[in-house]
Amino acid sequence: MGRLVKIERVKRSRAPLRLHGTIARDLGIGIVSGLYQPGDILSGEVASSERLAVSRTAYREAVRILAAKGLVESRPKIGTKVSSREHWQLLDPDVLAWTFDSEPDLELLNSLFELRDIIESEAAALAAVRRTEAQLKVMRQALDRMARFTIAIEAGREADQEFHATLLRATGNPYFISLTTGVNAAVNTTNMFKQRDRPLERDPVPDHMRVLEAIAAKDAAKAKRRMSELIRLARADTPTPRMKRAKKRA
After folding, report:
1. Both 54 and 162 in a single domain?
2. Considering the entire predicted model, what is its pTM?
3. Which strand (E) or helix (H) includes residue 240?
4. DSSP 3-state of 89
């Protein structure tokens, strides 16, 4: 009953979605937050649909969404089981949003920035060698909008994502480019998370501008260093669970 109460509270606080999307989100948040542990068997389709007062079709579609993201697996005679985290599609935009809905554990938070550093720093080095003038123009315009709107609002966050997406495209490497959705989801989710309690005090635009200047100068080594520094500072801006708890006690 406690799990159901928590899920119902989450359900009331979220933006409207189609019914099966709402169910998937609520269950997904429960899984990534640890409310449901790997190996747990979710209630059956009939029991769950009756408890949530939804159709069996809506619940079934929700489970399919979760299965596609690696959060659960359904087996005959066993039911729907929560998968271990190694199977989760952690860079899926929904899974990232669900993970940061409350706060991720410290290990996962650090791992996300570690991944960004590995991918985006190397991408910046490649972009410095392969970028076009048109791509430089798009990145400059994105930073202009980011400075004008700030990442406190959606228009500024969208500009930030455009900068990072264009940088990946500038590598000319289709495998780097294929990571755009995941990288942008990570950038946007952490931007929103770090400002949940209060506005970001440090302006991140100058850090982005330094990366762009190195790329424009075709200095691969400097572009890599500056992107790594940008991500290090972004991590420093992002509160850890321990920091958030200390703020609440203060």
Report:
1. no
2. 0.83
3. none
4. coil
Q: Nearest CA to 32 among 57, 48, 10?
A: 10
Q: How many CB atoms lie within 10 A of CB 165?
A: 20
Residues 82 and 111 in one domain: no
**Residue 4, token pair as written in the block:** 């159901």
Which has the closest alpha carbon to 65: 11, 14, 21, 35?
21
Average pLDDT over residues 113-121: 97
pLDDT tens for each residue of 181-196: 999 999 999 999 888 8
Mean pLDDT value of segment 62-89: 94
Q: Where are the beta strands (DSSP E) in the chain?
A: 72-75, 79-82
Shared-domain flag, residues 128 and 72:
no
Closest CA to 168 of 152, 155, 179: 179
* Contact call for residues 211 and 226 (beta carbons, < 8 A): yes
Residue 117 structure tokens: 């550093």
Rg (CA), the chain: 20
Domain of 219? 103-249
Of 132, 148, 192, 183, give the one whose Cα is nearest residue 162: 183
pLDDT tens across 37-56, in order?
999 999 888 788 888 888 88
Say whether 40 sits in a helix, a strand or coil. coil
- Cα-flanking dihedrals φ and ψ of residue 195, to 5°? -110, 10
CB-CB neighbours of 202 under 10 Å: 11
